[in-house]
Each structure stands twice: as structure tokens, then as C-alpha cells.
# Entry
Amino acid sequence: MKDAYWFKHDANARDDPKIVDMMMSRGKTSYADWWIMVEIMREQDGYQMPLSRETWSVLAKAMMYSREEAEAFVRECIDEYHLLDSDGEVFWSASLMRRMKHWDDTKTALSDAGKKGADR
# Structure
């Protein structure tokens, strides 16, 4: 079973120039859409999602968009706002990946320390 899907993020993320650019272009609701998408990516194995119809459906439901609008949002976050990275098959947030690597490394280290302590 997965943990409660916690992740750390900056309290002033709204001031990131890339986020500001997105909000100036798409409006303030794009900030909510951004965090909905990041939360969904956080829940995924590897913290990334495929560029696929299934992904557009998942995001569309969560954001109350059509699949086409959800896909357009993701592609703009990749191509225009540079908030996401993609290899043409999947997309991810480099910032989320960095934060989750630190979180995952910390959890592993604590788990290993607990196992060593239990073996004594």
C-alpha cells in the first residue's frame, strides 16, 4: 500500500516565473489545474505519466475539462511554459522528481536504519 501521497512544495510556487507566465496566459484557474496534475503525477509509479488518451481522460475528469483540453494543457506546460519535461512517451515535473527523490531516499535510509536496529 502506498503512503498518503505527501509531497513537499514551495509555499511561494505561485511566484515562479514559469507559473506566472502560465497564469497570465491561461488565467488563475490554471494554477489549480497545475496542482491537480502534479498531485496526480505524485500518485504514479515513477512520478510520471504517459502521453496517452488514458492520461488525457484521467486529467480531464480531475480538471473538469474535455480530453482535448487536458492534452492541450499538458502540451502547453511542456512546450510553452517549460513546467514539464517529456521524452515523447511520458511527461514529468523535474521539480517533483527532485523532491520525491529526496523523500524516497530519506524513507529508504530510515527503513534501512530501522532494520539494522531490529537485527541487534
Notes: The chain has a mean pLDDT of 86. DSSP finds five helices and three strands in the chain. The first strand starts at residue 48 and ends at 50. Residues 94-119 form the longest helix (26 residues).
